[in-house]
Design goal:
Length: 547
Amino acid sequence: MALTLQAQTAVAPGTACTRTFDVKPNSTYTLEVKMRTASGSDAVTLETSGLGAHDISIPTAKATWTRFSQQLNVADANNLTIRIVAGTGNRYDAEFDSLSIRRTGDYAAPSGNSPRRREVKTHLGITMQPDEKIQWMRDARIGMFIHWGLYAGPGRGEWYMENSGVPVKEYERLAYPESGDWYFTAKDFNADSLAVLAKDMGARYMCLTTQHHDGYALFDSKSASAFTSMQTHGRDFVKEYVEAARRAGLKVGLYKTLINWRYPGYFDPYGTDCAPNRFGHQTEAWHRYNAQQMKAELYLQTYELMSNYGKIDHLFWDGGWLQQRGTDEDAAPFWESGKLMEMVRELQPDIVCNPRSGWIGDFTCEEGGGSVKGDVRSGVVEKCMTLGGPWGWCAMREDSTAILSLQAVKRMCADCMVRGMCFLLNVGPDRHGKVPQAVQKRLREFGRWADEHAEAIYGTEGGPWNPVDGQYGFTRKGNKVYVYFLGEYDKDHFTLPPFEGGKKARRAYMVGSGRKIATQQKDGSVTLRNIPVEKGDISIVAVEYKD
Ligand code: GLC
């Protein structure tokens, strides 16, 4: 029987709405829900608890109603709590509708090791990159995301143009001095300093928004209708960025959106059914051709990005949807995402791409500030998030008490590490191109921590055992297992699950200080004694096994 809450419910920014369902232990359930915010840059996340060790969270930052379906494995619980969380930096309510759970079968909790597996699939005629081409990303673990564009001027997030329905001509003024305090001067943009900051925060790759949904390109383009930084500032910021990243020895990532709000055809791709919008566009037959022009510009600009800047390692697609609704996959027939990816692969045979173009992706994303929960991920998964608020610059980023605390950033990073994920942390430089001081400071503090704990982070895998949310989790490399205590573990001893066939530990020590940790071994299990775990903070113990 399905338990359904039909009524549409709104959740105010920074708050959560909780629903509890009675469930049967040892069962699988299918959860279905529709969620939305009025702005695609706002976050709405769904979290579950009561599944035992491995709760899940569904991250989203989608424009308008998006359907989600998720299988839940209930081990030993009698009830399940579902929390719909609206991001603290949201400007609009998050809404959900038709939340239901349905029992779909029996479930037996797995015991023991959790081997990490990535399945290489073919979708829309394109096969995912083999493991060896994505290994660099698995090893890199931490990246720096950069959201920068004209929206840095108004400081109301990168969805400002759409959220406020700013007409194209008026929005363009942000690129010129006449817009005064909102003028995107870009005078302090220094790609080398950004690369230094990325290294200081422990990042091994970077990813820059070459063009966001407002259509302003930070690169040169031959497209007749393109609006670019080359025209407005005589600078190709993508070129500056790519060269600086390479000089610093960082892998190069580019963010590119598919959609473009400059085209009314985006809201009305077939000229028959214009989606509600704040620009005043209505259904018109010619929109169909305008939408095709938007698509042609996407193909040309992707060609330019993939051909003019040497080797690109990472491509972060975004905005694969259409008309502010549905999922990226829904819009794939319009964009011909397989064809788009075929071009990308031809020009950049080694590149790895996310799934937001509607094609399946070499890796997947978990987007936004929601907590990271559940098992070690089976493929390569990149968690991207900001330090609070929207992705683009906003005034709160100048305030060190308003952005995420160092503890919170470490926790998010640790939650990613023990699940084998990458952690892509966003900065939004201001309209001059400077990263706020408060953000720089936080990233450098975090980078010092990452550096001290480098052996438990870089080049490690998640596992060998699944984490327990909030309590502990593991990474491994060679003959060492790193036990992460995630802040809620409150005992001074810990027994690691045994390896199949048994393995003995040679020694254990605190990562960072190197302080020795006493071990006790019995029946193939290793127990750590007197571990100095600190509540609310991350501590990591290395356990070196005998071969
Ligand atoms: C969402 C937002 C977009 C942001 C992206 C980052 O898709 O719509 O504004 O750039 O998340 O992952």
